[in-house]
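Give me the fold.
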Amino acid sequence: MPVLTASPTLGDLLKFELNASYTRETVTLKAGTSYPLGSVLGRITASGEFRLSPAAEVVGDEGAETAIGVLLEAVDATDAAVTGLIAARGPVILADAALVFDASVDQPTERAAKIIQLATVGLVARATV
């Protein structure tokens, strides 16, 4: 019998949001990757585009190492920069298990640092049942 796997939904990620008109923003995502729902993002200072927030500064993408938003929809930006909807400010509560980090964020301390960075803009990640 085949095993069915459902893709994550916004309800899996977003547990509380006070006012979507206030907490959300439409941003431009850097080309070159497919961003899944729940991507933890940082803003590139020079271009203003967003990308997965790396563990440390990346040459050419300075500024993105600070996590400041979470993608609220899956977006394919493989071929070109495209827009996406993010949670940009709180109060928002997110399921920490639904967050997707850059491949360079591979240590528990790096993940914890990203969660703290998100909390500074009111995006609180919590363990949920």
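DSSP finds three helices and ten strands in the chain.
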